[in-house]
Amino acid sequence: MIVPDTSPVVAPLLPSHLERSPEDPTRQNGSVSGAVFNVSTTMIGAGIMSVPATMKVLGLVPGFVVIVFVALITDVTVEFMLRYTSSGKSATYAGMMGESFGAVGSLAIKICVIITNLGVLIVYFIVLGDVLCGNESNGTRHLGILQEWFGVYWWTSRAFALLIVALFIMLPLVMLRRVDSLRYSSAISILLALVFVAICSSMAFSAMLSGKTQSLRIVPDFSQVTVLDLFTTVPVFVTGFGFHVNVHPIRAELGRASHMGLAVRISLTICVAIYFAIGFFGYLLFGNETMPDVLVNFDQNSDSTAGRLLNDVVRISYALHLALVFPIMNYSLRANIDELLFSNKNKPPLGLDTPRFVSLTFILLALTYLVAVAIPNIWFFFQFLGSTTIVCLSFLFPASIVLRDMHGISKTKDQVMAIVVIVFAVGTSGIAIWTNLNGSGANQ
Fold it and tell me: What are the structural domains, with CATH classification, of the chain?
């Protein structure tokens, strides 16, 4: 799932004994603009590459409506989290769940974060494989950059190319024991998203002037999709807007925690605009040929050398971005797994325990590589994550905290809204899972 967005920055959850209090002198007096930047970066990741495929299934008008609706539900659930954080004593998501549901709630958060991060890392590998080696859908073969440049050989295959990437690019990066420059990755993420929108829009306008754009569906075409297929797109957007794990770390950096709600609403507005722009222009360019990972579509031959170069620049730049973000996601995944498996408070920090650090790093890298090669379908993972762990982190857990109401602050309208959120989340996710298990997903 669009992981989605899949989000490029997911901070590790702190164990309860390491939670920072509001009086902690290490807190940073961050600005609203900085919070907007971090929240937006969290939402704009690899997930944007599946938005055009959702437009192909839904049509433009329903697609826009679903984007806005999921954004509104996201705003509601984040407001739930902020209110209960202010009323409680916890400074982390896991701690907040622990206050309402005890150790079981805290454990559930950690497990969901681990599964989500692992899924996102697999998605990053899949996107890299699509860019380098292409993909195949509905009998149509899309070539990757390596195959366009050098031809189809065993050493341009997905398995071998990703192995080289894993050993010579990913491994040196994930072996770094400190991640101190997340702000630079955030800047690159936002910049590349805007560049992608700019390039897609310019290519779409150029195609319009040449009469080469594709016909667009305003509403779904039920001769090609079923009503149930429409529900398989919702997890893509749930993944894209799933930044709830980062609410507490970003809130902790604000000079006034009350500004977090404003920052979230501004970020959601920005991301709705970017998602719809990418979906519209990507769908306008490729129409019914739009792939689940739209980067794959940029293998199409252009009439000019400049056009072909532009296609390659789009794919390579975003692939490099994902390669640079990969160690950040791996860092938080590794930290959460270490906290779950090695809960002894007297243990040395992970970065100082070389055997523990190296073994976890190698196992995680090998696992993500093997799964990405075995299941090279980005749509599958966006739907899986958006229908399971991310829907829990984004919707079910915040709504359940409101219904539990350990602090006695919920109003009747809050209880009703929480029930609506749960019904929406369980209903859409259940239908999406059932549709995919029966093999009728529109983009499989």
Answer: 32-439 (1.20.1740.10)
